[in-house]
Design goal:
This protein has 94 residues and is an all-beta fold. It has strands at 4-9, 14-21, 25-31, 38-44, 50-59, 72-80, 85-92. The strands form 2 sheets. A 4-stranded antiparallel sheet has the order 2-5-7-6, with no helix packed on it. Strands 1-4-3 form a 3-stranded antiparallel sheet, with no helix packed on it. A hairpin with a 4-residue loop joins strand 6 (72-80) and strand 7. The chain starts with a strand and ends with a strand.
Length: 94
Amino acid sequence: MNQTIYKYKTPFEGKFSIQMPTNSEILSVQQDKKTMCPCIWALVYPDNPKEERFFELFGTGQKIHNDMGIVRKYIGTYQYQNGEFVGHIFERIN
């Protein structure tokens, strides 16, 4: 089965979800220089069925509440507007 690298645009704040093929591996989080949007790049099996994956974005200095039962996995950090905003993306595991 062949794999492909996909790019997914992300919002600039809050919680969000992305539909991606099952067993996708997140590779990187960066600001796309062309669109100026933060993006997640993932190695995917394009023919796999899609699943919804949940993420949260926090800015540096922003409080991260340790809600009971929520497990987050750090995905990556990006800088926006020459470092005026630094965003940190976590995936919700449960």
